[in-house]
Structures are given as structure tokens and as C-alpha cells.
Write a structure and sequence with these properties.
heterodimer, A: 119 residues, mainly beta, 7-stranded mixed beta sheet, 11 strands, 0% helix, B: 111 residues, 6-stranded mixed beta sheet, 4-stranded antiparallel beta sheet, 10 strands
């Protein structure tokens, strides 16, 4: 069955870095558009980064441009989010999610990975 | 910047029907044909309930239905049940900036 298993979150200091990983099973990651979506404590959902199935279309929300990088390893069927220059406002639960079709219909989500940025 | 606005909360009694609205602002860049709805229970990942305005993924109850009118999308839950109590989010694709935007979420209370 389809599964997305995330890892790599935790505590980082402001200005620090973390790398989130999302391993897919039950489907081929490169056949789908994928996204990293975050949710700050007690807040709503925000699409942080988005990658097309071909990997040629990549988007970031304005607040993370130049600091976060989405990537994919097809051999490992894995999606990544490299997060640099972390800020307190990046503190959130981060989910990887599969897009049912390239329309923002996320039909499968990872379990979530908490990132806390604090000194 | 385009945005989707939802009411902060709605409530209803078991058996009743409720509707949650999702209104686009600065909405020329929002694709209303791509509206999706998610249900989120505390401590859990969101669950897709409706996509492309009216479509239900396999396994989602037909008590959940979606519609649009102009720049407003709506989620209707009929025959309200206690287990429907959750947060609900709408989303839509956009043509400028972040490819997908979410509404602020609506907390549904089943009285």
C-alpha cells in the first residue's frame, strides 16, 4: 500500500540547517507531483515547496526562497527538503504529500516531522 | 497575494447538515476548478475528502459533497455525525506564486 515515511526533523538553532527525508513505498515517486507542506503550532497549512514529476517544475513559498531546497533521489524513491538559515518562524510540523494529479489534491501524506527552531 | 478565506468555526447537531465556505480574495489567479477539501483530526495528518470541487476519493462517505459558485467553494456535510468533528481546510491551485494555497481552516463542532 502507499506509504510516505518521514525523518530528519528535530531541534535546530536559528541560522542552522536540517534535512528532511520522505521515503515512498507502494508507488514510484517520480510518477507524481510532490510537495512539502508545513503547519505551525495551532495554525493552518502552508505549501512550502512543490516539485513536478519530471523534476523540472519547482516552486517555493516566498518566505523560504533561497533557504530551502527540494530534491528527489529516484533510486531511493525518496524526497528531501534541505532547510538552511532556519528561523524561529520555520518551527512547524512538516509533511510530505503526494499530489493526486497536478492540481493540489494531496491524497497521501506522511506522518509529519516536527521541526523546532530555537536557541 | 491570492488567499482563501474560511469561517473560523461552524457547528451543528447530529443528523443536521452544515456548509463550510471558502472564498477567494485577489482571486484572478485562483483555479476554482481545482478546489480540494481536507479533514484534520488533532495530531493527525490531513485527509483528502474532496478534489476537483466535487470528486470524492475512494472510501470517503457520500455525506461529504462540494460545490462552487463564482469565487466561493463550499463543503457540505449531511447527516452530521460526532466523528465529523475536526478541522477542515480548503485548497486551490494558483497560477502565480505558490502553486497551492490553503484556507485558514474551519473548526467543526458537533453539538
Amino acid at each position: 500500500q502507499v506509504q510516505l515515511v518521514e525523518s530528519g526533523g528535530g531541534l535546530a538553532k536559528p541560522g542552522g540547517s536540517l534535512r528532511l527525508s520522505c521515503v515512498a513505498s507502494g508507488f514510484t515517486l517520480s510518477d507524481y507531483y510532490m510537495s512539502w507542506i508545513r503547519q505551525a503550532p495551532g495554525k493552518g497549512l502552508e505549501c512550502v515547496s512543490y516539485m513536478s514529476s519530471s523534476g523540472t517544475y519547482i516552486k517555493y513559498t516566498d518566505s523560504v526562497k533561497g533557504r530551502f531546497t527540494i530534491s528527489r533521489d529516484n533510486a531511493k524513491n525518496s524526497l528531501y527538503l534541505q532547510m538552511n538559515s532556519l528561523r524561529a518562524e520555520d518551527t512547524a510540523m512538516y509533511y510530505c504529500a503526494r499530489d493526486l494529479a497536478p492540481i493540489g489534491a494531496f491524497d497521501f501524506w506522511g506522518q509529519g516531522n516536527l521541526v523546532t527552531v530555537s536557541s | 497575494q491570492s488567499a482563501l478565506t474560511q469561517p473560523a468555526s461552524v457547528s451543528g447537531s447530529p443528523g443536521q447538515s452544515i456548509t463550510i465556505s471558502c472564498t477567494g480574495t485577489n482571486s484572478n489567479n485562483i483555479n476554482y476548478r481545482d478546489v480540494s477539501w481536507y479533514q484534520q483530526n488533532p495530531g493527525k495528518a490531513p485527509k483528502l475528502m474532496i478534489y476537483e470541487v466535487t470528486n470524492r476519493p475512494s472510501g470517503v462517505s457520500n455525506r461529504f459533497s462540494g460545490s462552487t459558485s463564482g469565487n466561493t467553494a463550499s463543503l457540505t456535510i449531511s447527516g452530521l455525525q460526532p466523528e465529523d468533528e475536526a478541522d477542515y481546510y480548503c485548497s486551490a491551485s494558483t497560477t502565480i506564486g505558490t502553486p497551492v494555497i490553503f484556507g485558514g481552516g474551519t473548526k467543526l463542532t458537533v453539538l
